[in-house]
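Allow me, if you will, to draw on your knowledge of protein folds for a short while. The matter concerns a single protein, recorded as an amino acid sequence and a row of backbone structure tokens. Kindly check, if you would, that the fold set down in the tokens agrees with what the sequence suggests. You will find the record immediately after this paragraph.
***
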Amino acid sequence: MSTARTTAAVFAAFALAACGTAAGDGSEAVPAPPASPSVAESSPQATSSVRLREFGSEHRFPSGLVVTVSSPNVFEPSESAYPRSQRAAAFGIELSNEGQRPYRISDLSVRATIGGEEVKQVQDIPRGYNGIVDADRDLVAGDSTKVTFAFALPAEVATVELTLRPDSTKSTKAVFVGSV
């Protein structure tokens, strides 16, 4: 019977510890602060750090690539746009290579979400929204370029998160957010 009591006491201690409560010392547990939304910070050690950026601001990646995302330009897609939507937003993205090595523009991954759901990129050639035109080109050190991406939006205003990854095979990213 004492083995059963010892086992029960051990499980109770683990359960209390998991809930953040100290067992038997009379102190109250202090809850951990809530996690902040995450964006990779500029140091290599902080690639899983936390920070959202507003549209219109910039982010510097550890490689020296600096991205600036414009405020969104909301527009009505043309009849030939794909996919069809009543409303869309275009984001101008400036890429500046302040690193030492060339940056392959085709490595850039841009994704938009609303409420955690991915929204589709709009191709609207008459309006000039056709993704990365010079994807096969390298951005040499000291050079910069601009690309524009458009995404379908719901009819009502929503909070959009735009996630940029300088290399789609790695977890390093920057997240820009705002109401559109």
Notes: The first strand starts at residue 52 and ends at 54.
